[in-house]
Sequence to fold (264 residues):
Amino acid sequence: MSIYDAYIPKIAEYVTDLQAKGRQVREFRCPSDVGQLLEGLPVRVGQGASQGIILRSDTFVEIGNPEAGSSAFLLWTDNPSLVTDGKITLIGPDIPESPDASLPFGQVLIVAGSGLTEKDHQTLEHTQFVADRIEGYMIRSVAQVIWSRVSKEAAAKGFRFESLGKALMSIFKTDVPKVQAMEILFVASSKDDLEPLGTIGAQVNKIFKSMLREDWKARGFDIYECASGYDCKSCPDQPVCDDIKEVIKVRKRKGDGSGPDQDS
Fold:
């Protein structure tokens, strides 16, 4: 059981809600094998594949500029059955349809592996910021947002969100062998559409920080800082904290053999 399991259905609900509002929603199904993911990609993927800076004059489309809006986060689970491996969902226009545009950008990466634990979270977080590993794709800034550019040359070769998704899947499955399944959501429809996604992302980020605090407390260091002045009843984050505490209890029971589900 992962603390993020409850948020995976929220992403599906988010997509359903936007589809009901008439947004353009497209799905792509990709192979699981890393080699097959890379077959036919219009750009190179790997260390040094990108030459780095993409100047504005060389930019086909800008994605996630702060003015246009951006929200990016990662969810992981140790239950692969919760993830549809190889599924990419795109809401809004694709890259070839957006010359000279500045698109809003939502990116949610959902990874699964039966061996994944809290200790892998930081590695997974770092892996999503691909630096120079995708030809013609440059990430300008990262802080719960992704602001990036696609070069005119990459667009001319046929680079699209499906290409980006396949590249990310291949990188994750190569760098983190524990990843057995991966699903991706891209949103490029409007800044307003990103608002509910940003709310989910903020909750996910609070969970990660709270898990770190709980870990430190378990080691004897109390670094907890509570904006509500320790009044849990008035704190809007109480449900998140309660979920975290429950998952920690479950994991402790499994660890000391006292839990009823220790053989499951």
Remarks:
- The two ends are 11 Å apart (CA to CA).
